[in-house]
């Protein structure tokens, strides 16, 4: 069983994907972390995010990044990740890692932007998780505060809108709902409600 969970920043897709993995006993990959690891590697070692060549080269550094590094979640790294993920060369360099994870014998849950459209087009179940930009900005502010990184709602909202535009507007694997994906709008839901709804949608597919 392969479950594809796509959606914009701070939609709740990561939390939902982890809960689905636990519920169905499947391994989980947060594919945004791959792009974030490339971004952090560039940030640390001084690569130019404006250069596709340097971004592709930074893909080799992904394995050296500690996945628990708090800096992976910082706004500066988020912003670089969103820029470098538009490069076809970067997407190609990270493709095989994601495809082979999805092809694992035990099945898998992957979350990102192009799982249902590019990485696992034949997934058993596909969810497109979304919420209004205002709700997502409020959630991100709360999440950052919980991590000891206070931020301003207005700034976060501007950043979320900019990332939405970049992720949806790019030519290479833009953020888009796969035709056969179930739409899950979590704007009016608590996280528990969203998880229950997601489990229900997946169960209806298996
Ligand atoms: O999901 P997350 O916000 O951690 O992703 C960070 C950035 O990586 C996103 O802004 C997006 O541009 C990019 N990304 C992507 N394709 C994926 C996952 C993430 O382009 N499958």
Automatic annotation (TrEMBL):
SUPFAM superfamilies: P-loop containing nucleoside triphosphate hydrolases
Highest taxon of the lineage: Bacteria
Residues of the Cytidylate kinase domain: 3-202
Catalytic EC class: transferase
Recorded GO CC terms: cytoplasm
Listed GO biological process terms: pyrimidine nucleotide metabolic process
UniProt KW Transferase keyword: yes
Binding-site list for ATP: 7-15
GO molecular function, one term: dCMP kinase activity
Reactions catalysed, as given in the entry: dCMP + ATP = dCDP + ADP; CMP + ATP = CDP + ADP
Keywords: ATP-binding, Cytoplasm, Kinase, Nucleotide-binding, Transferase
Pfam families noted in UniProt: Cytidylate_kin (PF02224)
Subcellular location: Cytoplasm
Catalytic activity, EC: 2.7.4.25
HAMAP family in UniProt: Cytidyl_kinase_type1
The family this protein is said to belong to: Belongs to the cytidylate kinase family. Type 1 subfamily.
Listed name of the protein: Cytidylate kinase
């Amino acid at each position: 069983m392969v479950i594809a969970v796509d959606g914009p920043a701070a939609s709740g897709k990561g939390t939902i994907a982890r809960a689905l993995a636990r519920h169905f006993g499947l391994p989980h990959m947060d594919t945004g972390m791959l792009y974030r690891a490339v971004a952090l590697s560039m940030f640390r070692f001084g690569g130019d995010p404006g250069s596709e060549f340097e971004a592709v080269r930074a893909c080799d550094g992904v394995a050296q990044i500690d996945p628990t590094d708090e800096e992976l979640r910082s706004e500066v790294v988020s912003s670089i990740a969103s820029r470098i993920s538009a490069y076809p060369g970067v997407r190609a360099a990270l493709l095989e890692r994601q495809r082979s994870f999805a092809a694992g014998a035990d099945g898998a849950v992957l979350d990102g932007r192009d799982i249902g459209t590019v990485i696992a087009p034949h997934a058993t179940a596909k969810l497109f998780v979304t919420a209004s930009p205002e709700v997502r900005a409020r959630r991100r502010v709360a999440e950052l505060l919980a991590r000891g990184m206070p931020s301003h709602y207005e700034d976060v909202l501007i950043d979320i809108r900019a990332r939405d535009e970049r992720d949806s507007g790019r030519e290479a694997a833009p953020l888009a709902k796969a035709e056969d994906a179930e739409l899950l709008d979590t704007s009016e839901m608590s996280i528990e409600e969203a998880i229950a709804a997601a489990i229900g949608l997946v169960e209806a597919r298996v």
